[in-house]
Amino acid sequence: MAESQANTQIYRVDLGPRSYDIHIEAGCLKRIGQALTGLFSRPARCMVISNVTVAPLYMATVRQSLEQAGWLVSECILPDGERYKTMESFSLIMDALMEARLSRNEPVIALGGGVVGDMTGFAASCYRRGIPFIQIPTTVLAQVDSSVGGKTAINHPHGKNMIGAFYQPKLVWVDPEVLHSLAAREIRAGIAEAIKYGLIRDAAFFDWMGANMQAALDLDADVIATMIHTCCRHKAEVVTQDETEQGMRALLNLGHTFGHAIESMTRYTTYLHGEAVALGTLLAARLSEQTGHAPAGTESAIAACYQQAGLSLNIPDFDVALWLNAMGHDKKNIGAHIRYILLRGIGDAFIAEDIQPDAINRLIASYHA
Prior knowledge:
- The protein is α/β, with parallel strands linked by helices.
- It folds into 2 domains: 2-181, Rossmann fold (3-Layer(aba) Sandwich); 189-367, Dehydroquinate synthase-like - alpha domain (Dehydroquinate synthase-like, alpha domain).
- It is 45% helix and 18% strand.
- The chain has 14 helices and 12 strands.
- It has helices at residues 32-39, 55-68, 87-100, 114-126, 140-146, 184-201, 203-211, 213-217, 221-241, 256-265, 273-290, 298-308, 320-327, 357-367; strands spanning 2-5, 8-13, 20-24, 45-51, 72-78, 108-112, 133-137, 151-156, 159-166, 171-174, 340-345, 348-352.
- The strands form 3 sheets. It has an 8-stranded mixed beta sheet, with helices on both faces. A two-stranded antiparallel ribbon has the order 8-9. A two-stranded antiparallel sheet has the order 11-12.
- β11 and β12 (348-352) form a beta hairpin.
- The longest helix is centred in the middle third of the chain and has 21 residues, at 221-241.
- It starts with a strand and ends with a helix.
- The model has no long low-confidence stretch (mean pLDDT 94).
C-alpha cells in the first residue's frame, strides 16, 4: 500500500508487529532526526554505521539532523567494498556497539549501500539479541532492492550471504538526491537490479526501463523516482506475502544463483553485485530457453536491455565443476539439489527444481565453445 504527498511516496511493508514504512522523498536525508523522533518515545543514544566512502559525504548531514532532534550520536566507519562483508567487519561493528553501550531500545542506523545495510542489520539482530535498526540506502541497488525486506548477512569464502538472519528494519529512509555522488559504474550495477523486477513480474516495467534507460543513467529526477517507487512497491508486496522466502520471495533471486557463484569464484574482487546478477540473469535466460521453458529471443531481449545500461555481457570462463560447486552453496537449495530461478518469458519467473547437471554442462559449453 502506498501513500503520496507532493514528492513523497510511502510504502507500507505490512508484517504485523514487524511492519514498517519505506519513505521515498528527494531531500529527506536532512530530516532523519525528525523521522527517528517519530518512531521512538524519546531521543536517546544511537549509532550510525557507514563506510570510508559514504561517511565523508553524508555523515555530517545525518549527525546534525539527529543531534538537532536530541539524539546522542556515535559512529562506526567500515572499509568499503563487497570483499569487506566479512566476519572481521562484523566484529568491528559489535566492538563499536559494545563500547557505545547501546541498550536494547536504542537504534543503529545503516548509512550506505547494500554491504553496509546487510552487515548493520545482521549486527542489530545479534547485539543484545536484537535492537532496532534503520536503513538509509545511498546506492541505486540499495534503494531499489537490498534495503527493503530484512535480509541481513555477511559473506563466507564458501558462499555469499551464507551467515545472516531475517531481521526487519524499523524504517527505510530513501533520498534519491544522494545518488548524484555515485560513480557511473555503481549506477549501472543498481539499474541491473531494477531491471530484475521487470523480468520477474512486470513486463511493462521492463519495457519502460528500456525506453527510459538513458534518462535513468543520467539520474533524471522523474525517471529515477518512478524506478525506485516501482521497485519498492514490488518488493513490499512480495515481502508482505513471503517474509522468510518460503515460496514466491525466492523469485527475487533471479540471476543470483549464477551471480553469487561468479562473485564467490572471483573472491568478491572483480564484479559489483549488480554486474554479477546481470551476468547470472543472462545465464538463467539461456538455460530457460535451452530447457524449453522460455521462447527464443528471451535472452537476446535481456542482453539488449543490459547493453543499453552499459553492462558487460561477457560470461566468465570457469570449469563446470567450479560452477556447480559454487552454486551448491546457494541458500535456495534443498539438500544437495540446486534450485534455479528461470523464466517462462519476460515478466514471468518461476522456481525450477528439475534442472540436471548435464543441462548446466550444455549451458556453460554454449558460451565457451
